[in-house]
Amino acid sequence: MIGGMAMIQAGFVRATADIDLLIDVSKENQARVRKALMSLPDQAVKDLGPDDIHRYTVVKIADEFVVDLMGRACGIDFASAKDDVEYVIINGVSIPFATPSLLWKLKQTGREKDELDRMYLRELLKKG
To answer: CA spacing 20 to 30 A to 95: which of 3, 79, 84, 113?
Structure first.
């Protein structure tokens, strides 16, 4: 879990319109992600092509809520990020959230909302 939901988990409460997931793009994992997203009411993941996550920077699955799937974010892939997460149990499911240090790396963009996130993360990381 990266993006706004991970920022909220890190303590910066702000609005977010979607759930951002940095995923392992192996065929096996993509099949697991697809199966999980099939549990959403509209099953919008059916429209996901087999190479979409490789072809596009962000793949939006617009269902009951929007899930953005990414194979890379700011040059970071799942393999590089997987050891820099904190697991949170939600409804009995262990969810990996990006740590503040990983979020800092992922927020190096020109977007205004990322600047606000960086300001928060800078202070959080200073506190240690």
So the answer is: 113
